[in-house]
Amino acid sequence: MAKTLVIGANGTVGTELVKLLIAQGHDVRKATSKAVKDPARDVHLNLVSGEGLAQAFAGVSKVFLLCPPGYTNHDELLKPAIDAAKAQGVQKLVLMTAMGANADESAPLRKAEVHLQNSGLAYNIIRPNWFMQNFNTFWIQGILEHGKIFLPLGASKGSFIDARDIAAVAAQLLSKDDFNNRDFDLTGSVALDHDEVAKILSAATGRTITYEDIPPDVLLGGLLQAGLPKPYAEFLLLILSYFKAGYSERTTDAVQTILGRAPGTLEQYARDYRSAWVTAS
Ligand SMILES: NC(=O)c1ccc[n+]([C@@H]2O[C@H](COP(=O)([O-])OP(=O)(O)OC[C@H]3O[C@@H](n4cnc5c(N)ncnc54)[C@H](OP(=O)(O)O)[C@@H]3O)[C@@H](O)[C@H]2O)c1
Question: Whose CA is closest to atom 5 on ligand 1?
């Protein structure tokens, strides 16, 4: 039976995507850059070194592809995977980039998108806005230690999307051909500022969580201290400056169009992930 290869299968979106694809009857192959634990299901693939490209795509008909975080040379990581998909006769590839990736034709992520569009493969490109799940991953330390979301974003708003909706969209696009060769910006249905986010997290957890607007340099220092490579930390600051400038506020109807239902709300996300911010005492 033809397989569906999920790259980033152990990540925030990929974990949910794998569950949905299996439920929908796909024979899923999970790519990992780490040691393979289950050879019947997992395959080793390292997008940075190129190791495992040919084996990972052999016998595969559908592919979900993303660029692992931590890198800024997105095109150099993604183009060989797109070429390997083409060489191995893959039918369709769904690439996840990020909202705003197509704003600059010279951006590495955009170059990867264009490479896919010119590849001759059937494809979709999905560009999610900032994930809700960042509040239980990247930004969690300030919440746990100080009850604060520390970000340099002023009162700007974002139409945060639940990663589970991104996974549901990707699963649908990998299962049906109705939307082939189209790209979609994926957002939640409302834009919220971080005071509003903090209120919603407070209501869900029963804790007092507030937002503190911090200078970009303070965040940069924290990211470097946490061990992020400098070019990637600076890239994060750059895209956060786009958020502050208002580019993350826009909403689209893509989730509704593809799934036939509205995107999940931040209130629902906060209830579902409550345990992340409420430590057992
Ligand atoms: N967070 C946001 O707000 C946001 C918004 C828009 C777009 N995005 C995009 O979303 C993507 C991240 O998605 P995510 O949050 O679901 O992922 P994630 O949770 O950060 O997980 C990263 C995945 O990449 C895999 N990986 C790491 N290094 C790899 C390598 N060298 N070769 C192949 N795979 C590797 C990891 O698996 P192993 O450890 O098993 O290898 C893991 O499955 C990024 O491209 C980011 O730009 C994020």
Answer: 130
